[in-house]
Write a structure and sequence with these properties.
Helices cover 49% and strands 8% of the residues. The protein is mainly alpha-helical. Helix 1 (2-25) packs across helix 3.
Length: 247
């Protein structure tokens, strides 16, 4: 907990410094990132007197940027680490994905998002990793303003509510033999990717993860690039991994 708080404090200092630097510079030719765009829009609203309610405050910019940093980098990196740990237990799956990568991409160029449609087994492997190895097996907590009933169950007002993703991911009626790691769950008899809406690694409903599309791209590129060049194996110590150069 203390380490997490220390990291958050450091991240806040970095973010606040970056925002102050952008505010002081006010360079119209500066790279158009989120902070720059936010500040420019805020400046225009203030000039026009249209931000009376303070929608575009510096405090909100700080909070939004912190969320982008933590949710967009830390969460994805921890998820990929969890996925690689699971993948290290399945050399046969790695070998099949690597054969597909070799035939489609080769080893002389970088993997790109355009390759995804031609790599159904790799894509299915990542989907199965999302099902069986996602580190978050419950959604974030929400609360209801009014008392309500769902399927006959009374939910008092101001209850803390979350969805149990594990109950879906490991439901044998949806995924036979759910403890088995099997990317073929997401492939048809011809080896083509099929869409299944049964795993909710990014949550569900209108409060699902806003960065789902970006995270899926990052996972595809990172895991695919690692498998393109390395074999992942368990390390000598618990919780560690070895990346062995492919021959």
């Amino acid at each position: 907990m203390k380490k997490a708080q220390a990291f958050r404090d450091i991240a806040r200092l970095v973010i606040n410094g970056m925002i102050k630097e952008q505010m002081d510079a006010r360079d119209p030719d500066a790279p158009k990132g989120y902070v720059t765009a936010y500040l420019q829009h805020r400046h225009e609203l203030l000039k026009q007197g249209k931000d009376n309610e303070g929608s575009f405050t510096i405090e909100r910019l700080q909070a939004n940027t912190m969320n982008l940093l933590l949710e967009g980098t830390v969460t994805v990196s921890s998820t990929i680490t969890s996925f690689l740990e699971e993948l290290s237990k399945h050399p046969d799956v790695q070998e099949t994905a690597q054969k597909e990568l070799d035939s489609v991409v080769g080893r002389d160029r970088l993997l790109s998002t355009e390759d995804k449609q031609n790599l159904p087994y790799l894509d299915a492997t990542i989907q199965e990793l999302c099902r069986i190895a996602t580190p978050n097996l419950i959604t974030r907590f929400c609360s209801n303003l009014k008392e309500t009933r769902i399927d006959g169950y009374l939910i008092p007002s101001r209850s803390l509510i979350c969805a149990n993703l594990a109950s879906v991911h490991f439901d044998p009626e949806i995924f036979p033999n759910p403890q088995k790691f099997d990317p073929k769950r997401f492939l048809d008899e011809h080896g083509k990717r099929i869409t299944r809406n049964a795993h909710y690694a990014f949550g569900l409903g209108k409060r699902s993860c806003l960065g789902e599309a970006l995270a899926e791209v990052e996972m595809f590129l990172v895991i695919g690039s690692i498998l393109q060049n390395f074999r992942v194996a368990p390390g000598n110590k618990k919780g560690t991994l070895k990346f062995l150069q492919r021959e």
